[in-house]
Specification:
heterotrimer, A alpha/beta (293), B mainly alpha (275), C mainly alpha (276), B: 275 residues, mainly alpha, MetI-like fold, two-stranded antiparallel ribbon, 2 strands, 77% helix, globular, C: 276 residues, two-stranded antiparallel sheet
Chain lengths: 293, 275, 276
């Protein structure tokens, strides 16, 4: 049995020894869970396609391409870019003034656009009867003031409504807080989910649920229906032409001057990567009329 | 050994140091623990953890209420009732139960327990204190069971045989003779279960609902301290107010755990002296 | 009346014991049945693939990552833990020091896993600038395993000492040094059993490594300074993101099988002790 332990120990040490020295050839990316699936997919394709950096560009060293992608929310993306935890931060909202100051010299790339849509199951009482809400009505639901269906609309049955939200570090959460809730707070008993994917799943499987979700995911889901906000539906067109007020930029944020490897990867994301962005139901930058960042 | 002691001190010191700003801030410790809500997006942002420790208390309390009696019974079974062959099947099964990681419990509960609860209680979604308590009870059960089995076995055989020879029922012997003698061991088993329940992270994160509400009933959603830290740590920038608040929450956990250990040690010490 | 109570109690105990068997068997069987469709050699070796990522491919990098993390943790915890236990048990240290060390170890063993994550993140990842990496995660897991091994080894040494010491002395072993060697050798299987259990425990925890070592996706390149995929965090990711429940079942099953193997190994080691 000592051999088992010895084997494990040597395995551990060996794999550590096999190590690529320091951070050569490694890019760390993290942040918004809206961008997570598409960027992870792009990273995987990139590594598969090129394998080593010198194949991307002969002037780069012959090192394995290694890209690590993680979630954590837009808040984490910004903080991570700030303190060097990640090379590229994924952010699904505009940067705040204080964040720009704290970042100092930085660059952002707009990889696509998305919106925050309000959704419920198509076959739920809410989904079947309502097509649109005013901002104030939504604030009432999200803040828990209207916790039962008949409080929202007297014609609906007296049933409880489950509200699903993202936790406070998410880009979507911040947008909702600033533009819809304003002075009110999210309902204390709303369920906080750790990612857009989790949110989607919950909303799809809960009978009487309501929440906000990335419009791309919402439109692509066959189980969910979206609600128009003050008469404007969260379609891709309305996102591009700016009519839907809760549109948000999907950004890559890099502090300081990006090193050659990071620049290369970002160029790839902005070009070949756009197909993956579209495949994950987000609006690619190439479709967006005005970018100007 | 020296490293062990040093590590504990280092951890405690570091956590305390990082927590200090949260505790000394505006509303102080009282505010942090008792009055402030957790509202990081409010203006000004607030980081009280009242909802979290009440969640921890509620979830842990119910979990122990379920698992401790069951654990004692299984312990008594292993020590006094089971024939050798049966015991040698049950004990390893209990050990397996103890070895299943938190994330697997969380996953299984997520796919099995939550839908069932939602149906059974006509809820929109199954995440609740009850769900978390049930899962915690399953996780704590093996520790209480093994610990109490050990405690029961440690009672001197002469004592047991003398009691059995009196002609009373086995239950009577267990209840009146063996259990009181095993008291400190039983207490330790429960304490072990309690510490495990309080410290549980992944399972409750996936099952309790992760709401910042203070739960008032078994069917409410909750966010124990551990889930709070796991949810918010990623986004908390080092040095920010939220960061300090999360360390404050961690410090609370450390203090509780240390207190439990002190209680166990003094119980053991007291009983040894009393003999 | 009293007989009735006794019968009821006995019946209850049997029922609960049955539950004690049914629960773990049920969980493992459930995972196996649901996950079997995905399990294959490819699953164990390949990197995650598919759209979304994780719904295809396999968990190879996660298995590697978990092993590497636990390996590093053990490299730290085993020598320190066993060494510390030997010192406490065989070298007759001052009573207060011994009790304090034991108390510290028991407290550490009870510390919630997320607090280890908190500490690892703030101290190792940020303060010591190790970044989110295999090293940071491995060190954190080492701290997680240390108290378990220390206490277990101490208990193993204690239980050997009593019986063997007398025997050895009666056979003419005079030096403390030689006595120590015999005792340690006798206790080794039990110490290894405890270590294996500690390894299993560290293998399955997610909270300490969520913020110190984990990444969602990796192709299997591992280095001390890179983040790694691990089985528990991958399962958490698959569940939370609702990426693929089939893969989640299979991942859960793999985790449980590895832990069962660890449990089995520990049992076999403990049996060795009994035989001596």
């Amino acid at each position: 049995m000592r051999t088992i332990i010895a084997t494990l120990l040597s395995l551990g040490l060996a794999s550590a020894a096999l190590a690529a020295p320091e951070d050569d050839g490694v890019i760390r990316i993290g942040g918004s869970t809206t961008l997570l699936p598409s960027v992870a997919s792009i990273a995987s394709d990139y590594m598969e396609k090129f394998k080593t950096w010198d194949k991307v560009d002969p002037s780069l060293p012959k090192k394995d391409i290694v890209v690590f992608v993680s979630g954590g929310g837009s808040g984490f993306g910004v903080k991570g870019a700030m303190n060097g935890t990640v090379h590229i931060g994924l952010v699904s909202r505009d940067l705040k003034a204080e964040e720009k100051t704290a970042l100092g010299d930085h660059k952002t790339w707009l990889v696509g656009k998305d919106a925050v849509a309000f959704v419920a199951r198509k076959d739920s009482p809410l989904g079947k009867t309502r097509k649109s809400f005013t901002a104030d009505q939504i604030a009432g639901i999200l803040s828990g003031e209207k916790a039962r269906l008949n409080a929202i609309d007297p014609a609906l049955p007296d049933q409880p409504l489950a509200v699903f939200v993202r936790d406070s570090g998410a880009g979507s959460a911040e947008i909702i807080q600033g533009m819809i809730l304003k002075n009110r707070q999210v309902a204390r008993n709303a369920l906080q989910l750790p990612s857009q994917g989790a949110l989607l799943k919950k909303l799809e499987t809960t009978r009487n649920g309501f929440g906000y979700l990335s419009s791309g995911l919402a439109l692509a889901s066959s189980a969910l229906t979206t609600f128009a906000l003050d008469g404007v539906a969260p379609t891709n067109d309305n996102v591009i032409n700016g009519k839907y007020p809760l549109a948000r930029p999907l950004l890559l944020v890099v502090k300081g001057k990006p090193d050659p490897l990071v620049s290369r990867f970002i160029s790839y994301v902005m070009a070949e990567g756009q197909a993956a962005i579209a495949a994950h139901d987000l609006v690619p930058t190439t479709s967006v009329a005005s970018t100007a960042r | 050994m020296l490293v062990g002691g040093a590590t504990l001190l280092l951890i405690a010191f570091f956590v305390a140091r990082e927590a200090a700003p949260a505790l000394l801030a505006d509303h102080g410790i009282i505010g942090f623990l008792f009055t402030d809500p957790w509202a990081p997006l409010a203006d000004p942002p607030q980081f009280g953890i009242r909802h979290a420790w009440i969640s921890t208390l509620l979830v842990t309390g119910v979990a122990l209420a379920i698992s401790v009696p069951m654990g004692f019974a299984i312990g008594a079974f292993l020590s006094e009732i089971a024939p050798r062959a049966i015991g040698s099947i049950v004990q390893p099964c209990i050990d397996v139960l103890a070895g299943i990681p938190s994330v697997v419990y969380g996953f299984v509960a997520y796919v099995l327990l939550l839908p069932w609860l939602a149906d059974a209680f006509d809820l929109s979604t199954g995440e609740s204190v009850l769900a978390a308590s049930l899962v915690l009870a399953a996780m704590v059960l093996p520790f209480v069971a093994s610990g109490s089995a050990e405690a029961f076995r440690a009672v001197p055989r002469e004592l047991k045989e003398a009691a059995y020879a009196q002609g009373v029922t086995r239950f009577h012997v267990i209840r009146r003779v063996i259990a009181p003698h095993a008291a400190s061991g039983l207490f330790a088993a429960v304490a072990l279960g309690l510490a495990r329940a309080i410290g549980e992270t992944l399972a409750v994160l996936m099952i309790a609902g992760n709401s910042i509400a203070t739960p008032a009933s078994l069917l409410d959603r909750a966010q124990p301290i551990t889930a709070l830290i796991a949810t918010e740590l990623g986004e908390a920038g080092v040095g920010s107010a939220k960061y300090h608040a999360l360390f404050g929450a961690g410090l609370v956990l450390l203090v509780i755990v240390a207190a439990i250990n002190v209680a166990v040690w003094s119980a053991k010490g007291r009983l040894v002296a009393a003999r | 009346m009293s007989l009735l109570v006794d019968r009821a109690f006995t019946a209850l105990c049997w029922a609960l014991a049955a539950l004690g068997i049914a629960l773990p068997v049920g969980i493992v069987a459930f995972l196996a049945v649901r996950g079997l469709s995905v399990l294959s050699l490819g699953f164990l070796v390949d990197a995650p693939a598919g759209l979304p990522l994780g719904s295809g491919g396999g968990i190879g990098p996660a298995i590697l990552g978990s092993l590497a993390l636990v390996g590093i943790g053990a490299a730290i915890a085993f020598p320190l833990g066993v060494g510390g236990a030997i010192y406490l048990s065989e070298y007759d240290p001052p009573r207060l020091l011994a009790r304090a060390a034991r108390f510290a170890a028991e407290c550490l063993a009870a510390v919630p896993s997320i607090v280890y994550g908190l500490f690892g993140y703030a101290f190792l990842v940020v303060f010591m600038a190790l970044k989110v990496s295999l090293l940071a995660g491995g060190l954190t897991l080492g701290i997680v395993m240390l108290p378990i091994i220390l206490i277990g080894a101490q208990e193993a040494l204690k239980s050997v000492e009593a019986s063997q010491r007398e025997a050895a002395l009666s056979l003419g072993v005079t030096t403390a040094h030689a006595l120590r060697r015999i005792v340690i050798r006798r206790a080794m299987p039990a110490i290894c059993a405890v270590t294996v259990l500690a390894l299993g425990h560290a293998f399955g925890t997610a909270a300490p490594i969520l913020f110190t070592a984990a990444t969602i996706f990796s192709r299997g390149d591992i280095g001390l300074s890179t983040p790694v995929m691990t089985l528990p965090t991958h399962l958490y990711y698959l569940t939370g993101e609702a990426v693929s429940f089939d893969h989640a079942y299979a991942t859960g099953f793999v985790i449980v099988v590895i832990l069962l193997a660890a449990n089995f190994a520990a049992l076999a080691l403990k049996a060795r002790v009994g035989r001596d």
